[in-house]
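Tutorial, part two.
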Amino acid sequence: MKHRQLPVSLPADHVWLDGLLAHSPQVKGLVVLLQTTVGQHRESREAYLAGMLQRGGYATLILDLITRHEDQRDPDIRYNVPLLATRVVAASDWIRHQPTLKPYAVGLLAGGTASGAAIRAAARAPERFATLVCRAGRPDLAGAGPLRNVQAPMRLIVGSEDAGQAMLQQAFSLVTCPKDWRVVAGAGELFVEPGALETAGQFALAWFDAHLPPPIDVSEAPPEEPADDR
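Running the prediction step on this input gives:
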């Protein structure tokens, strides 16, 4: 299945976020890969995982949650999880207005501080996101309330050598929705060891296969409730 690659720019409040959309007819769903780096749409870890998901039959959107200007002026912005979560919800607004994407359920895949943003966004707008996968990262930064309130089935993938496992386990223990914990043997927090990222990608793909609903007939879809902006 060959995907068409299309650079996109989408609005989020007063900024425009860059991304790379890969789409093909007859895909099974859409996975949004969230990253807090800028412009690395073809050589980042997210790009590698996007390729695996595309081969598995999914459309993908690699989305920068910060702008180039913000990256240069405020490197701490990637830790502003409430702001990043608001941008994830804004991205879902853009997706819903794209005729080619509207039929597809949306899954989220995130690492780093974007894991916290993904959880917070899914808790805020449960009708927008069908499932999510966190590749370790900082789910704790979502906050206890969103961790308890997220409804979308969630898989957390961790490396066996990740020094932050205790923190990850504590955050995971707060999650009450259907959830799953997977360990990549020999991997650290960044999954840079040989074969580690591929194994993480296989875990992610299997989760989306199990939990992303099939495409809908948009002509029969009920109207959606607006997202809660809190």
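The first strand starts at residue 4 and ends at 12. In part three we will examine how such features are distributed along the chain.
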